[in-house]
């Protein structure tokens, strides 16, 4: 069964990676970086401020925790534990895989890009989704951001799917912790006053 999953994962990789075009290569390479998304992050900070005002500091703790949990779990635990080569590091795929400018580290399971983006999307959906339901577009952004990794040949679709699941769990855990910190500090503040 594991071999069938690996075979399906490789077939999906070659299909989605094969949808490349020379015009799109630099666009997808840029989209997989962090810096092009800074205006979006600034807009999200604005929405957090509009939702929680000066009390929004605890949401920043949540964002920090979500990314920390997701990134460290995938990069420090999963990648070395599973030791699955990235597609661009796999010599069996060298002749058929389209890559562009980057490969990354040796191992790729699970995707930290997917984990981090889905962690942020899940956390922010919990934090500001009631006031701004349209913020669910963050999940579409997370899918696109993660897809760039398959397009560039640095992750299998399975790396992305598992990374997304890990990220969503980490985002929800970070929400629970940061919300508890907020409740604890709010109740202590009212007790002191």
Oligomeric state of this protein? single chain
Mean pLDDT: 92
Question: How many domain modules?
Answer: 1
Poorly predicted segments: none
DSSP helical segment count: 7
Number of strands: 0
Question: Could you state the order of secondary-structure elements as H and E?
Answer: HHHHHHH
Shape: elongated
Question: Could you tell me how far the N terminus lies from the C terminus, measured between alpha carbons in angstroms?
Answer: 62 Å
Q: Largest beta sheet, briefly?
A: none
Q: How would you characterize the overall build of this protein?
A:
- The chain is mostly helical and 193 residues long.
- It has one domain.
- The protein is 69% helix and 0% strand.
- It contains 7 helices and no strands.
- Helix 4 runs antiparallel to helix 5, helix 4 runs antiparallel to helix 7 and helix 5 runs antiparallel to helix 6.
- The termini are far apart.
- The model has no long low-confidence stretch (mean pLDDT 92).
List the helices and strands and how they pair.
Blueprint: H1 2-17, H2 24-31, H3 38-52, H4 57-82, H5 112-128, H6 137-151, H7 157-192
Helix pairs in contact: 4-5, 4-7, 5-6, 5-7
Domain Phosphatidic acid phosphatase type 2/haloperoxidase: 61-175
Protein name: Lipid A 4'-phosphatase
Keywords: Membrane, Transmembrane, Transmembrane helix
């Amino acid at each position: 069964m594991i071999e069938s999953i690996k075979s399906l994962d490789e077939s999906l990789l070659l299909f989605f990676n094969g949808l490349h075009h020379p015009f799109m290569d630099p666009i997808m390479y840029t989209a997989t970086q962090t810096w092009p998304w800074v205006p979006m992050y600034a807009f999200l900070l604005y929405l957090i401020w509009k939702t929680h005002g000066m009390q929004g500091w605890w949401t920043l703790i949540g964002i920090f925790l979500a990314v920390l949990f997701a990134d460290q779990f995938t990069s420090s635990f999963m990648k070395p534990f599973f030791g699955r080569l990235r597609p661009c590091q796999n010599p069996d795929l060298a002749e058929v895989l389209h890559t562009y400018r980057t490969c990354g580290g040796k191992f790729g399971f699970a995707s930290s890009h997917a984990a981090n983006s889905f962690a942020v999307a899940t956390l922010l959906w919990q934090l500001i989704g009631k006031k701004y339901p349209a913020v669910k577009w963050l999940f579409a952004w997370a899918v696109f951001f993660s897809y760039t990794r398959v397009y560039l040949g640095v992750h299998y679709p399975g790396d992305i799917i598992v990374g997304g699941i890990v990220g969503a769990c980490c985002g929800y855990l970070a929400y629970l912790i940061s919300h508890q910190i907020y409740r604890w500090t709010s109740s202590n503040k009212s007790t002191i006053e």
